Amino acid sequence: MLEGAEFYFNVDHGYLEGLVRGCKASLLTQQDYINLVQCETLEDVKIHLQTTDYGNFLANETNPLTVSKIDMEMRKKLCREFEYFRNHSLEPLSTFFTYMTCSYMIDNVILLMNGALQKKSVKEILAKCHPLGRFTEMEAVNIAETPSDLFNAVLVETPLAPFFQDCMSENTLDELNIELLRNKLYKSYLEAFYKFCKNHGDVTAEIMCPILEFEADRRAFIITLNSFGTELSKDDRETLYPTCGKLYPEGLRLLAQAEDFDQMRRVAEHYGVYKPLFEAVGDGSGGKTLEDVFYEHEVQMNVLAFNRQFHYGVFYAYTKLKEQEMRNIVWIAECISQRHRTKINSYIPI
Amino acid sequence: MVSDDWATCEESGSRPQYRGPMAAPGLRAQMDSLLLQLLRDLEELEAKRAALNARVEEGWFSLSKARYAMGAKSVGPLQYASRMEPQVCVYTSEAQDGLQKVWVVRASAQTPEEVGPCEAALRRRKGLSRTPEPESSPAPRDPLNWFGILVPHSLRHAQASFREGLQLAADMASLQIRIDWGRSQLGGLQEKLKQLEPQSA
């Protein structure tokens, strides 16, 4: 790939980059968050959001307003913007967008399979699926009994097909296997996305590869943390770690042997990026959790992506920042509706 | 002797009964001790109620934190079946003083021959089992697994809070029964006292 993206980028993608930067400028500011935190009810939240870029997005909602309605409407708005970008994109940006939607598709597939396990109706679950991860074969997912079935019958035509290589098995899909399937699919997806960005080269690789490495390592840490005290064996755990991060290979091997949080912390201390993150984790219920600290770091990296021009990372960064904003608003709304205001300021400002 | 110290023959039947002022202090002492017990029970009930409210609030808040970490759709009504079997049963039994006592028992600790009323308790229940179960059910699956195998700690926290709340609820039910009984006893004693002292003061 020729170096010097600044010569060729704007021909195909200049309009969209300009658009996404405009969208990024309309994210909620610190002042908006301060106003939201002072609201007493969800109606106040709705009124405050009307003054921001969200506008009247809740205008058609009937009473009573709930947190999940707010969440759904925000998600629809993000989806509309994303679809607009996607419809106007050319290769290779279109492939980039497809890669971005794969993670939502994986979540939707797992949601549908879990629903099938709990004997829920397909319609009910389809309504709750993430709109960015919609694909035509979605309704048929619940008929599959094993991962091979799922692949051969349903997903072979979708973009998820190449990620099924490690997941083919004849085990019936119960809760443990669905979780394993989810993590293995995500691992393949992340590694494929990383390879795509790296092969693209140029500024995109310089921006996206560190972000994806962090994502891979984050997943490894969170899987390890959540697997303490469960029936997941250490070998199984190791197969779930994505290998495109900084922890590969020694860190992942050490992490697979970890049995509690302190051992995990010691693994992280070998890496200069992760040591300060683990030091920022508070103890017990008072301070920040590991997930909070990781979200903060992700926000920092995504904001820095906007400092360079002529790369695809701005689209990824914008989507992730918008998602963090949605998480913040949902958190504030839940604290307000539960009248539990002590931790209302734990959102992450952008 | 004053006439009202003795019941007249017409009132009490064949033998006159002594219902003089000597009986009243005994009754009063009984009332006092009953009242004190009642007040102690009330205080305990209030404390337990506050603790239950705190646990339930904590539980819901931990669920919100879990939603923040896992994504809003991963912790919600989509994850559990509409029909569940209970993991926890409520038992009642008669204690020595004739009062009913309520407590909760985990289903895994129960044997098939257990007698006693078993109503389904409200909170966490196990999911639908695939195969038809024989008489003794296998270890009931943890409802935490409805949300996946790898769940964040906030979800475990929520489960622990709700479990503690269950125990508190059972204690509160026993206390409430005791308080109601105490109140009715007190009412009865007050009636008796009123009958004994119609002319005093």
Automatic annotation (TrEMBL), chain A:
Q: Which InterPro entries match?
A: ATPase_csu/dsu_sf, ATPase_V0-cplx_csu/dsu, ATPase_V0-cplx_dsu, V-type_ATPase_csu/dsu, V-type_ATPase_csu/dsu_dom_3
GO cellular component terms, A-Z: endosome; proton-transporting V-type ATPase, V0 domain
Any one Gene Ontology MF annotation carried by this entry is: proton-transporting ATPase activity, rotational mechanism
Is-annotated flag, keyword 4Fe-4S? no
Respond yes or no to whether keyword Metal-binding is given for this record. no
Database matches in Pfam families:
vATP-synt_AC39 (PF01992)
SUPFAM superfamilies, sorted = V-type ATP synthase subunit C
Q: Which UniProt keywords apply?
A: Hydrogen ion transport, Ion transport, Transport
Family to which this protein belongs: Belongs to the V-ATPase V0D/AC39 subunit family.
Role summary:
Subunit of the V0 complex of vacuolar(H+)-ATPase (V-ATPase), a multisubunit enzyme composed of a peripheral complex (V1) that hydrolyzes ATP and a membrane integral complex (V0) that translocates protons. V-ATPase is responsible for acidifying and maintaining the pH of intracellular compartments and in some cell types, is targeted to the plasma membrane, where it is responsible for acidifying the extracellular environment. May play a role in coupling of proton transport and ATP hydrolysis. Regulator of osteoclast fusion and bone formation.
Assembly information from the UniProt record: V-ATPase is a heteromultimeric enzyme made up of two complexes: the ATP-hydrolytic V1 complex and the proton translocation V0 complex. The V1 complex consists of three catalytic AB heterodimers that form a heterohexamer, three peripheral stalks each consisting of EG heterodimers, one central rotor including subunits D and F, and the regulatory subunits C and H. The proton translocation complex V0 consists of the proton transport subunit a, a ring of proteolipid subunits c9c'', rotary subunit d, subunits e and f, and the accessory subunits ATP6AP1/Ac45 and ATP6AP2/PRR.
Stored PANTHER family: VACUOLAR ATP SYNTHASE SUBUNIT AC39
Q: What is this protein called in UniProt?
A: V-type proton ATPase subunit d 2
Classification of source organism? Eukaryota, Metazoa, Chordata, Craniata, Vertebrata
From TrEMBL, chain B:
Instruction: Look up the coiled coil feature and give its residue ranges.
Output: 28-55
Any idea what this protein is called? Vacuolar ATPase assembly protein VMA22
First-listed, main subcellular location of the protein, grouped into a coarse class: cytoplasm
Q: Which Gene3D superfamilies match?
A: 1.10.287.3240
User: What are the subcellular locations of this protein?
Assistant: Cytoplasmic vesicle, COPI-coated vesicle; Endoplasmic reticulum-Golgi intermediate compartment; Endosome; Lysosome
Q: Which domain of life is it from?
A: Eukaryota
Keywords on record = Coiled coil, Cytoplasmic vesicle, Endoplasmic reticulum, Endosome, Lysosome
Give one Pfam family, short name only.
Vma22_CCDC115
Recorded GO cellular component terms are: COPI-coated vesicle; endoplasmic reticulum-Golgi intermediate compartment; endosome; lysosome
Where is the stretch described as Disordered?
A: 1-22, 122-143
The encoding gene is CCDC115
What GO molecular function annotations does the UniProt record carry, in alphabetical order? unfolded protein binding
Query: What is an annotated GO biological process for this record, any one?
Result: vacuolar proton-transporting V-type ATPase complex assembly
Q: What function does this protein fulfil?
A: Accessory component of the proton-transporting vacuolar (V)-ATPase protein pump involved in intracellular iron homeostasis. In aerobic conditions, required for intracellular iron homeostasis, thus triggering the activity of Fe(2+) prolyl hydroxylase (PHD) enzymes, and leading to HIF1A hydroxylation and subsequent proteasomal degradation. Necessary for endolysosomal acidification and lysosomal degradation. May be involved in Golgi homeostasis.
- Specify whether Endoplasmic reticulum is a keyword of the entry: yes
Self-association and partners: Accessory component of the multisubunit proton-transporting vacuolar (V)-ATPase protein pump.
Q: Membrane spanning segments where? A: none
